[in-house]
Design goal:
The chain has 147 residues and is α/β, with parallel strands linked by helices. Helices cover 22% and strands 39% of the residues. The strands form two sheets. Strands 1, 2, 3, 6, 7 and 8 form a six-stranded mixed β-sheet that branches. Strands 4-5 form a two-stranded antiparallel sheet.
Length: 147
Amino acid sequence: MKALVQRVSEASVSVDGTVIGRAGPGVLVLVCAMQGDTDALPARMAAKIAKLRIFRDDEGRMNRSLLDTGGAALVVSQFTLAADTRTGNRPGFSAAAAPEIGERLYAALAEELAALGVPVETGRFGADMKVALVNDGPVTIPLEITG
C-alpha cells in the first residue's frame, strides 16, 4: 500500500463541482492499494500516518503527530501512485490492485484512521475528483507499507 501524506492548512475534494470532503489543518492522504496488498495493511498504514511526527512543536521543529495536534485527514484514492515510468513515456498502472480490492482497502484505511480518533473525510473511489490544498511547509512524505 502506498500513500503520499501532505501536511496541509486546508484541503478539499470535489466531484462534479460539489465539495464532498475537506480537512485542515491536518493531512491530505493520497492512497493506492497495490497488487498483493492484504487486509492487514490499512491498520498499519493508518497507525503510521496518525503517529507520523510532521507537525511543528513549540520550538518550530517537526515533532508532533496528527494525534498530538488533533488534526484531521482527507483521504483520497489515487491509483496513479502505482505508476511505472521505467520505460517509455506513458506510465503503466498494472501494479495497482484491482478496483474492488483497492476500494475495500481504501475504505478500510479511512475507517482505521477514524478508529484512532482522527477526524476523517474522504473522496469518492473511482470518481473524477478535483483536489485543492494549501500544502503547509511544504511537507510531503511518501509512505509504503508492504507485507
